[in-house]
Structure prediction request, 332 residues.
Amino acid sequence: MSPLRGRIILVPPLGLLYSADMDRQTRQLLVITAALAVMFSAFAFAIEGFAARDNLANIARRGAINGIISAGMTLVILTGGIDLSVGSVLALSGVCLALAMKAWGLAAGLCAGLGAGVLCGLFNGLFVVFGRVPPFITTLGMMGIAHGIALRATGGRTVHGLPPTLTRVMDVEILGVQPVPGLLALAVLLGGQAFLSFTTWGRYLIAIGCNERASRLSGVPVERVKLGVYVAAGACAALAGVLQVAKLNSGSPLVGEGYELSSIAAVILGGTSIMGGRGSIVGTLVGVLIIAVLASGLTQLNVQSQNQNIIIGALIIATVLVDQLTRRGREP
Prediction:
């Protein structure tokens, strides 16, 4: 006998799943935005020149790479997954871009770099969706694979001697600042939010995070949506790798270290539930700014990078704890 026979399964409408927590998300967004404003004001009071134009531009550049990665990470976490490979995929994509650009030019380099990221995301999605391998294990394995390939391809050395074309594009100045990286990150983040808010697949993604089984029974193409978010995460990591190469005018197999932590922190601080089904990329944008402002302020206060990681890790734990306690408080 079928396990579903004789049972009544209530499948909530997708619109209800999508909109049930909107008021709560709006309040949460206001709270984290206020926290960002308070933190920025505190650093501006304590550090001379913190609110100066040059430092604001530096904060935007610092947050651009993490912002692009975090956009893809948000999509994955909203489905209840995780991607630990983004830093290594960034490094691998940057290495592929640098090697191909040095040999065949910018167009070939961009194809190689972006293609490497998409391919890594595709493999992650295939193993998670069709291989039924937990996302943590799949992406942890991909983290090692991508890092190893990047090291092997370069012999552990940085790829120098690149044509300056890409760096010149990213270094274009307008009114004394270099806005291209920040504007590119903003376009990715806002485009991701538009996808969530105004497309059917965006609503599917939220529904899967709320209740995957109910979504499947409602006719949602769960496998295709989940595969797509991992491909998107790989593409975002690859695009971030392009920015990294443009910033340094070189490709290094070691540059991606730490982006797993900072991107997950930005997503969680931005109000996306680690359990999936609730969150927004606008919130992630605020989370990215929190991480960037915090890193800039702590660096100028001479706080060592390892201590900054301790603070960011503690913020992740505290935010997830609050989310879990809030969930329990809503349960009957």
